[in-house]
């Protein structure tokens, strides 16, 4: 193999592949990136996988001699990042080593056999749907923080993706809160393939792993793509974003019936100025218990007093002026859970709806454009 490639183009692809590569694993080849090129071609193909999530990309290059090699993804990225914006030459003088040179810089990197690199599944080419990239990115941002990190209940390690010919939704929960983001309008333009049913049909349901959502969000924020070509295979999902393709296994588990969690009898409602609520919570939470992060909302006709206390540190409170005509009540929340919600909405005002101090409360933006967002949060014991 021998090719010449621009430093900026190669760096961009290698940077995206870093999120896929597993740094700690028992299979050495999974720490490598696969580089493939055809003689005389004007582009090079790159790929990385951790066996659960994979990414394919390509960028412009002048290929003198085709071939395929695997190189340590992290070390190659660090080398390319340290080089100036110039032409980089990648050549394989002999089996087992690759030379990476640029201007007066030269290096030799050990490779692993191409045959050891895992095969990655291919999409059939029959797209299930064309998804609005901007709307999908917004939905991911509004739900991924509610996914639990490491839980033995596999269904909580991802988000439920619901897709029909008329809409798409993402649902995530960690057992203490639930985030539901839905895109109004046409979610599946093609109406072809599994899961793209017409009106009255049940939507397709798949659980997307947390890592898949993180990497998909990264791709969507890279080039400002307008749409994502989505395909649902038997065991894998394919997301084509521009010249890149993200491949993911699905989580084979039953997601909780989230519809049952959505409260229907919340009869108390308060509107907050979002920025003021953010500021108040950040200040008051400074003196909350570091483990529980509990803050108490004391609500009456005079306003809402938000307070916190910690036996080892002290206490704090602040009053927000709001309109409220219901009975005096108190309800306690995890401050960070509320701040997570406030950090992903852009409306000037948000609404809190609740029934009492023990039932699920709902937070939502006062106004949304083209999509709906519901955040269910369990009160804490005061």
Give an account of the 3D structure.
By secondary structure, this protein is of the alpha+beta class. The chain folds into 3 domains: 2-116, DNA Polymerase III, subunit A, domain 2 (DNA Polymerase III, Chain A, domain 2); 129-260, DNA Polymerase III, Chain A, domain 2 (Roll); 268-377, DNA Polymerase III, subunit A, domain 2 (DNA Polymerase III, Chain A, domain 2, Roll). The protein has 6 helices and 25 strands. It has helices at residues 7-17, 73-82, 133-141, 210-220, 274-285, 335-342; strands at residues 2-6, 32-37, 43-49, 53-60, 62-65, 67-72, 87-94, 97-102, 105-110, 129-132, 158-163, 168-173, 177-183, 204-209, 227-232, 236-241, 244-249, 268-273, 294-300, 303-310, 314-320, 329-334, 349-354, 361-365, 371-377. An 8-stranded antiparallel β-sheet has the order 6-2-3-4-17-16-15-10. Strands 14-11-12-13-25-24-23-18 form an 8-stranded antiparallel β-sheet. A 5-stranded antiparallel β-sheet has the order 5-1-7-8-9. The chain starts with a strand and ends in a 5-residue tail after the last strand. Residues 188-199 have low confidence and may be disordered.
């Amino acid at each position: 193999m021998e090719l010449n490639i621009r430093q900026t183009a190669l760096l961009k692809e290698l940077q995206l592949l870093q999120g896929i590569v597993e740094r700690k694993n028992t299979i050495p080849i999974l720490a490598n990136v696969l580089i493939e090129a055809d003689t005389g071609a004007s582009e090079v193909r790159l790929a990385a996988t951790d066996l659960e999530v994979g990414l394919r990309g390509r960028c412009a290059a002048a290929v003198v001699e085709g071939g395929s090699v695997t190189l340590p993804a992290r070390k190659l990225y660090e080398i390319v990042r340290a080089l100036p914006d110039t032409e980089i030459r990648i050549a394989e003088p002999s089996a087992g080593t690759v030379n990476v040179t640029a201007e007066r810089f030269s290096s030799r990197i050990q490779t692993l056999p191409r045959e050891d690199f895992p095969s990655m599944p291919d999409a059939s080419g029959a797209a299930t749907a064309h998804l609005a990239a901007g709307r999908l990115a917004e939905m991911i941002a509004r739900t991924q923080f509610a996914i639990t990190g490491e839980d033995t209940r596999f269904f909580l390690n991802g988000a439920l993706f619901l897709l029909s010919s008329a809409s798409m939704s993402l649902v995530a929960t960690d057992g203490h809160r639930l985030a539901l983001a839905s895109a109004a309008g046409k979610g599946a333009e093609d109406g072809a393939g599994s899961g793209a049913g017409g009106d009255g049909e049940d939507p397709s349901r798949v659980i997307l792993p947390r890592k898949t959502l993180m990497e998909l969000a990264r791709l969507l924020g890279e080039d400002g793509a307008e749409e994502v070509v989505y395909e649902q295979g038997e065991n894998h999902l394919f997301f084509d974003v521009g010249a890149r393709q993200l491949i993911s296994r699905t989580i084979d588990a039953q997601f909780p019936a989230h519809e049952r969690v959505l409260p229907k009898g919340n009869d108390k409602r308060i509107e907050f100025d979002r920025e003021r609520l953010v500021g108040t919570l950040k200040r008051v939470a400074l003196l909350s218990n570091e483990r529980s992060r509990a803050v108490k909302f004391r609500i009456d006709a005079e306003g809402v007093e938000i307070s916190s206390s910690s036996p080892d540190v002290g206490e704090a409170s602040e009053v927000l002026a709001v309109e409220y005509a219901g009975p005096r009540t108190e309800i306690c929340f995890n401050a960070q859970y509320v701040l997570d919600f406030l950090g992903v909405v852009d409306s000037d005002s948000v609404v809190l709806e609740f029934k009492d101090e023990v039932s699920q409360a709902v937070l939502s933006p006062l106004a949304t454009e083209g999509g709906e967002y519901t955040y269910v949060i369990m009160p804490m014991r005061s």
